[in-house]
Structures are given as C-alpha cells and as structure tokens.
UniProtKB/TrEMBL annotation:
Gene3D superfamilies: RbsD-like domain
Keywords in alphabetical order: Isomerase
Catalytic reaction equation(s): alpha-L-fucose = beta-L-fucose; beta-D-ribopyranose = beta-D-ribofuranose
SUPFAM superfamilies: RbsD-like
Example GO molecular function: fucose binding
Species annotation: Amaricoccus macauensis
EC nos: 5.1.3.29
Iron in keyword set: no
Protein name, entry field: L-fucose mutarotase
Gene Ontology BP, a term: fucose metabolic process
Phylogenetic lineage: Bacteria, Pseudomonadati, Pseudomonadota, Alphaproteobacteria, Rhodobacterales
Keyword Isomerase: yes
Amino acid sequence: MRDHREDDEMLKGIDPILNAEVLGTLRAMGHGDDLILCDMNFPAQAVAQQTGLGRLLRIDAPMQRVARGVLSVYPVDTFVDDAAARMEVGGAPDEIPDVQREVQAELDAAEGRSWPLMPIERFAFYERAKRAYAVIQTGERRFWGCIALRKGVLPPEA
C-alpha cells in the first residue's frame, strides 16, 4: 500500500503542501473572491459554512508554509488596496506579530515587491471572512495568524 504523501508529490511545479481539494478550490475562485488563511484559534468551521464554498478546507502546517504554497499558484488582486490583509491584534492595532511578518515576507517574495498587509479590526475581519469564497485552516497555533487574500487575474500569454 502506498503512502498518500507520495501522491501529493506526483505533479511538477505544484507545491506538495497543496492538496487536491485546495487546488480545486483555488482554481474555481474568480477575480475578486477572497481566500482566508487562518490559525487554529479562528472559528473556522462556523465561518466556513457561511462562505461561497460552504465548507472548511485544511492544511495542517504552519501559516508561513501554507502561505508559501498558496502564493505559489494564487494571483493577488492588483486593482484594490486591501487585497492582502491581516487581522489586527486586539487592543494593539499597530502591533504586527511574527506570524504576520512571516506571511508578509512570503507575500513580498511571491509578488516580487513589497506589498503590506492591510490591518483589519478583528470583528470586521470575521465579517470579511464570512463573505469570502473559502477558508483554509492551517496548523498554526500562534495567535493572530489570520490573513485575507483577494484573488487577482492572470494576464493572457504574449
């Protein structure tokens, strides 16, 4: 019997952390749809039931690793200022925890430029998440590991 992890590595150029369910969802999303990446403390199941997809997706890995995988295939919207956003730390909106700094570094690397994560107040973030297309709960245990990414477009090939 084969280990299921072997199957995850059978595609060229696709990060093996991205499971089939996640890949199918990312592909189905359209321009302007939001994707939420959240930590283990976020009320992911309840929120995911209210999203376009209607069910929770999971990748049991640290937030930075999940962000790297997602951003390797996911175009971020360049038409709006809040395409990449982070949940503000309660009572300290200017504080940026390490988990968010790590995602910031992955976003900058994927986009090839500095792209600040816009802060969103905690309860406003919950509302944005409910209107999202999908929620991916990560294995991240650190607090404030909640990110929203709005899908952009891929230009036609020249």
